[in-house]
Amino acid sequence: MDFQLTEEQRQVRDMCRDFAAKELAPNARRWDLNHEFPRDAVKKLGELGLMGIAVPADLGGAGMDNISYALAMEEISRGCAGTGVIMSVSNSLFCDPVMKYGTDEQKKTFLAPYASGEKLGAYALTEPQSGSDAAEIKTVAVARGDEYVLDGSKNFITNGPQADTILVFAMTDKAKRHKGITAFLVPTDAKGFTRSKPDDKVGIRASGSCSLYFEGCAIPKRNRLGAEGDGFKIAMGTLDGGRIGIASQALGIARAGYELALAYAKERKAFGQPISQFQAIQFMLADMATELDAARLLVWRAAWMKDKGVRHSTESAMAKLYASEMCERVTSRGIQIHGGYGYTKEYDAERHWRDSRITEIYEGTSEIQRLVIAAGVLKD
Amino acid sequence: MNLEPTEVQAAVAATARAYARNRIAPAVAENDRSGKFPVQLIRGLGELGLLAVNVPAEHGGSEAGAVASALSVMELAAADASVAVIVGVTNMVAETIARYGSPGQKERHLPRLASGEYLAGAFGLSEPGAGSDPSALSTRAVRRGDRWVLDGAKQWITSGDVAGVVVVWARTDPALGEGRGITAFLLQPGMPGFSVGRHEEKMGQRCSSTVSLAFDGVELPDEARLGSIGQGLAIALSALDGGRIGIAAQATGTMRAAIDAARTYALDRKTFGKPIAEHQAIAFMLADMATWHDAARLMTLRAAVLKERDEPIGQAASMAKLFASEASQRVVDAAVQIHGGYGYTEEYPVAKLYRDARVQRIYEGTSEIQRMVIARQLLRDP
């Protein structure tokens, strides 16, 4: 038991911290305001191997472990939460499943360019009427000759507006319910594929999400990921890793909010002294720092277990649940410490708070995390 | 990153767990009711080496480290927080003597603390008018030749009536400012002028005794002084950092007991045609309880790891203590809620857990003191 980062892990963290300070933080407010996708920054992230951290170097990634991934996600999200989720989707929801379930040929086509940031991937499970209850998806895929033909729609798909390939989950055998779901790699230049305008979101506005439409969308059979019926297993297993990414994103957002509040509290004076000298403010800061620390340890534990290759559903859910709810509390207190200024766009406190809110919703709402955890507790 | 316990750590935890299950748990209800100090249990813990886990073997300790010590307290607390606090304080006193004591003091006290011959060690810092702010203490020690004469009183002293050795802090130089001029001494029962006062009637942790102590011209040889003159406050604060890990570990153990009890009850009890565990309102409480428990456990063990590496632990220990004790309060409250009316009776174990948990937010530094310590550090960091 050492709770210690390796030299390599520290280097990744420092590299990402530098990158975020130089390339992300100075632009984050503008990207948020303009709803602007940070194309150049994403390309540079790819060059650093950060769009496929766990992907082996010969396949375009960085070949690093999940602790490194968690550290990188925290640092990048601290600079820009939207960039954080673009990176998280690429790593956890696209590269991870392709690496785990892809054939050699699929890896060649769908891994190297994506891990290196040349192209962008997305993950499409959610539909208008099925988010948390993934077994209810309505999108269908019918085998026809050498092809599958997809019909249906998906929504809230992060990276959807920019993606070159999307991992799409569709029903191939409705009677089997969740065991009739299959995963497909759908190139966005496929015929019959269209997408909506980007969603107008409360936060993480540097990242885009949109709806996807499949109307007789034909893709080659070799684009099926895994066997028919493996889709649900792939989708859920992928989310366990994704939760570590989002939990780390929440750490980064919370840290940005906390650090800003700390700096403001030292500077701002009231009743003749910096407000950091009042216990009311000090105690908020103490709670913020403590909760951040607790969340980080839960995240590191989940990542450590993933690196060991042991089942980590409960632990990932705990990390995601606690970190995301912590993030909302911490960034909300950040606004409180800023007072009226916190409610204006002149300071970043309000952006951090807006960014925080989604972490409690996507890749499994807090309610879904509690279901997962409770199942684990009751099973023991 | 490695979060796996070593073989030694796992062995200490397993020893504590087995003893907690087989010996402590069966006696819990009776010990809580009678409020009598559990002499036999403590002697048994001494035989197992759990009273001085992080003390060198040459002095009779187990030399298993701070992580093993925290794991042991977690296991004992999962059975009975009272036993855990007796053990936690005894370990803290033993470690303090091991760190600051003279060779003679170590030789004299450590084997007796470790074996259980002393039953307990006690930590005499708090006074009626100085709890959270120990620098304001008013017990005095006046030098007379090569002896010291001690006058004053202490309050809220865990195991103060049974301990074979009590560390007592006294002001030795009233001229110096509040924080300085304090020195620590080792007292033993039976010394003329040293008496035990009131036994507190506590709502929880009832078989751990809490007493006041009075010093009326107690004469001590200079060999009874622990550390150097004026070093007292530094010794106290450093010991308390370690002690906070102990309370965080205790709170973690309480949480585990509450979760186990609530889980068992929720699987058994039915409403609206199914076990209440299948109602989301209950299942989600259990999910939050388990999440807080795990976070508290990780924070506690991380602080213990830092202590083993001899790194500064003030911040980590305060965070662990604050988080674990506040979480423990929420967890025992939820456990009572899950039990409904039964939870409000002494028929089920959660009522005791509820009473026991409350003091975790108070002793060894209230939550407010922990927040002060944490904030001070945060504001100092670059």
What can you tell me about this protein's structure?
The complex is a heterodimer of chains A (380) and B (382). Chain A is an alpha+beta fold and 380 residues long. Chain A has three domains: 109 residues, Butyryl-Coa Dehydrogenase, subunit A, domain 1; 110 residues, Butyryl-CoA Dehydrogenase, subunit A, domain 2 (Beta Barrel), CATH 2.40.110; 148 residues, Butyryl-CoA Dehydrogenase, subunit A, domain 3 (Up-down Bundle), CATH 1.20.140.10. Chain A has a four-stranded mixed beta sheet with strand order 1-4-5-8. Chain A has a four-stranded antiparallel beta sheet with strand order 2-3-7-6, covered by helices on one side. A two-stranded antiparallel ribbon of chain A has the order 9-10. In chain A, a hairpin with a 2-residue loop joins strand 2 and strand 3. In chain A, helix 3 packs across helix 7 and helix 7 packs parallel to helix 9. The longest helix of chain A has 37 residues. The radius of gyration of chain A is 21 Å and the shape is globular. Chain B folds into three domains: 113 residues, Acyl-CoA dehydrogenase/oxidase, N-terminal domain (Butyryl-Coa Dehydrogenase, subunit A, domain 1, Orthogonal Bundle), CATH 1.10.540; 108 residues, Butyryl-CoA Dehydrogenase, subunit A, domain 2; 148 residues, Butyryl-CoA Dehydrogenase, subunit A, domain 3. In chain B, the strands form three sheets. Chain B has a four-stranded mixed beta sheet. A four-stranded antiparallel beta sheet of chain B has the order 2-3-7-6, with helices on one face. In chain B, strand 9 and strand 10 form a beta hairpin. The two termini of chain B are 26 Å apart. The mean pLDDT of chain B is 96. Classes of the chains: A alpha+beta (380), B alpha+beta (382). Chains A and B meet through helix 8, helix 9 and helix 11 of A and helix 6, helix 7, helix 8 and helix 10 of B.
